[in-house]
Amino acid sequence: MSHVRKDMENALAYGRTVVSYLCCFACEFPLDFSEKVEHSVVDVLKRCRQQLYTGSGQWRQNAQIILAFSWEKLNTGTWRDVDKEWRCLYSYGCLFKVAALCRDDASSATVQEAIRTCDLGLLMGAAIMDNILQSFVRILQNDIGKRHSNEENPSEGVSAQKMKVDCVSVPVVKQALAVPRIHCPSLESFKKDYLDPQKPVILEGIIDHWPAFKNHPWSIEYLQTVAGCRTVPVEVGSRYTDEEWSQTLLTVNEFIDRYIVVKDASSLGYLAQHQLFDQVPELKDDICIPDYCCLGEGDEDDITINAWFGPGGTVSPPCIKILNRTSWLRWLGESTFVCIPLRTPRNSTLTNYSSYTTLVRWRWKVQTWCDSQSL
User: Fold this and answer.
1) Which of 69, 71, 13 is nearest to 39 (CA)?
2) For the chain, N or C: smaller number of CB within 10 Å?
3) Full-prediction pTM beyond 0.85?
4) Average pLDDT along the chain
């Protein structure tokens, strides 16, 4: 009983911290929306803001009204046509719901629900109030991490031996078609020999200094510690062109247990092309943008960093990516990349690997692929 009481006291303390943190932003609650957002919806937002300081009224119910209304707007039409104001509205709904959860109840399950709500706001909404939802996650995640470290048996952690290591057939790479590998070229030679003529290349040894190698080497256990309770989008199915392909939301722990550790061999799950490092800044601190990316167009803020994480057997159908820098992160297994020149006729057969091809093997390390044409 003393252990349960201590957990409840810790959770309540974090709940009060969240509400206190939010109250510090009193002057930053303008809630200014254009006429696109109905006045009745803005009135509900203002009631939530008032209830934040008074602690009275149907706070959580009002937050749920905001979420339901904005969710409908987010799922009407195509995503690129969704106005940013609706995304901001959804984020405010998540914000008020988290504050209500932390004030009304602070059980372990409720703290996890609050983290999930923050993640939904980060995934579907827009940044508000200096990205306050990210700050909430840090506060709540500290509590979750402490509980797990006290409850879990170290001997029961995930090990590499328990991971799926499927034997996937790969093509034989002809030396004449293989993508060249070079070790830490100068910026000048990289630009002259590969970037300007738009030739793909694998750069080796350029990220050995990353904290992901030095300070705390990445592993499944490390991912679970840093991001295990975070909710992420997961593709279910071998490839997104299949009829049975779908998407779902899972925590990183659920994703690892279901698809990475040998559990359900009947289906494949893939965390693909997700901006995980924006969602979990702690992971972004473990990597650095390669200096070669400065040779591309635009500023550093324009660089998109995505993550791919999944078991063997996942496939990305041919697609066009006109990029000048791409980082591919893998821990274990093999991946085959086929580069097709942009001017290849649409009716040509891509399965004969008539362009640059490479088979890359990883084992608990990160490789960087700088590509200036297509992948």
Assistant:
1) 69
2) N
3) no
4) 75
